TrEMBL record:
Molecular-function GO terms, alphabetical: monooxygenase activity
Protein name: LLM class flavin-dependent oxidoreductase
InterPro entries registered for this protein in UniProt: Bact_Lucif_Oxidored, Luciferase-like_dom, Luciferase-like_sf
Source organism per UniProt: Streptomyces doudnae
Gene3D superfamilies referenced in this protein's UniProt entry, alphabetically: Luciferase-like domain (3.20.20.30)
Domain Luciferase-like, chain residue ranges per copy: 1-337
Pfam family name, one: Bac_luciferase
Keywords: Monooxygenase, Oxidoreductase
Length: 376
């Protein structure tokens, strides 16, 4: 089992000063994660989402983290690859340079990008985005495979040489954002690792792992993106761990409420509703979940898990022992990596740091070689 931090860069009450503090704090959290034994940090790429994410140039954040750390891996989770966001050759150059400077610690995840607000900001053709991601991945891996490269498809490139070359041979491990089941099948078919997004917990992890494995079993060698297959399956796990278990649960649920409400509102351009101090996070999430279910009933939508999983509250908000139990459940469900989501919009920096420390000292060692993880 591997362990990572998943950085979104949220702000409950955005101001330029709070934004700068949050970004500096995120670097400090990554430095602590390196010191206490986490395997990886992931950073998203989102644009123009005032409450949900201020991580618009994740390659800069990851470079800063790489310079401040020694062993932890550095992950794009993910870089947006539709052509209007960035040219594939530029992605290959930046990623290779970061791989070299970090000593071969880079992981590269790919995705379509987020909401209509983001794609409108860059003029992305939403109908072509999925196909462009696939083409961009073929271009990037081709650049890293062939010293003299050219491509003639939707883009005309080369012939030419793209430098530098990545340190990891033949290239850094490749992943795909898998927020939907179709993306899981695509990742498995191409031989890419899966970054499984969502708050579904062990039950959804088991379901999605089965889909991923079924697609792996059916893939043809000719359909692989590269000769280097990556079958790594990483899942998001929101968590807050403190000695004060009741406070950890209250802070974690409040953070989750902000996270899901900010993501729910980004599509319409509105801001998340103000949190009512008289209503605890669990009651607020349940109330919103019921609203979502009523809307689904009104529109006669039968498929539910994708829509309501974010409102589940059974997450490791509490003790380190509770976190150990959740890791065991996720491992039994097929997870290869737990991506700890700690920095949710209302979770204070000191709580993030204490959670990272407790995972490093009390949770991660239980799953290392030579240690005894708790029995099922």
């Amino acid at each position: 089992m591997e362990f990572s931090l998943f950085f979104v860069g949220q702000l409950a009450d955005p101001t330029p000063e709070r934004e700068r503090r949050m970004l500096r704090d995120s670097v400090e959290q990554a430095v602590l994660a390196d010191r206490v034994g986490f395997d990886r940090v992931w950073a998203v790429e989102h644009h123009g989402l005032k409450w949900y994410s201020h991580m618009s140039a994740s390659e800069i954040f990851l470079t800063w983290v790489a310079a401040r750390t020694e062993r932890i891996r550095i992950g794009h989770g993910v870089v947006t690859l539709p052509f209007a966001y960035q040219h594939p050759v530029r992605v290959a150059e930046r990623a290779a340079l970061l791989d070299v400077l970090s000593g071969g610690r880079l992981d590269l995840g790919a995705g379509n990008g987020g909401s209509a607000r983001e794609t409108a900001l860059y003029g992305v053709d939403r109908d072509a985005a999925r196909a462009q991601v696939r083409e961009a991945l073929e271009i990037i891996t081709g650049i890293w495979r062939d010293e003299e490269f050219e491509w003639h498809g939707s883009l005309d490139i080369g012939p030419g040489t793209v430098l530098p070359r990545p340190l990891q041979a033949p290239h850094p491990p490749l992943f795909l954002a898998c927020g939907k089941e179709e993306a899981l099948r695509t990742a498995a078919g191409l031989g890419l690792g899966a970054l499984v997004l969502g708050f579904g917990g062990p039950a959804m992890t088991r379901h999605r792992r089965a889909l991923y494995d079924a697609a792996r079993a059916e893939r043809a060698p000719g359909g692989l993106l590269t000769s280097t297959v990556n079958d790594h399956f990483a899942v998001v796990c929101p968590t807050v761990v403190l000695d004060d278990v009741e406070r950890a649960r209250a802070v974690g649920l409040r953070g989750q409420q902000f996270f899901v409400e900010s993501s729910r509102h980004w599509y319409g351009g509105g801001r998340p509703p103000a949190q009512d101090p008289a209503v605890d996070g669990e009651r607020a999430l349940e109330r919103t979940r019921r609203e979502v279910l009523d809307q689904l009933d009104e529109h006669q939508v039968e498929f539910r898990p994708e829509y309501v999983a974010a409102y589940h509250t059974d997450h490791p908000y509490g003790s380190a022992e509770g976190a150990v139990e959740r890791v065991r459940e996720l491992a039994d469900a097929g997870a290869d990596e737990v991506m700890c989501l700690v920095q949710m919009g209302t979770v204070p920096h000191e709580v993030c740091m204490e959670t990272i420390r407790q995972w490093g000292e009390k949770v991660i060692p239980r799953f290392r070689a030579g240690s005894r993880a708790p029995a099922a």
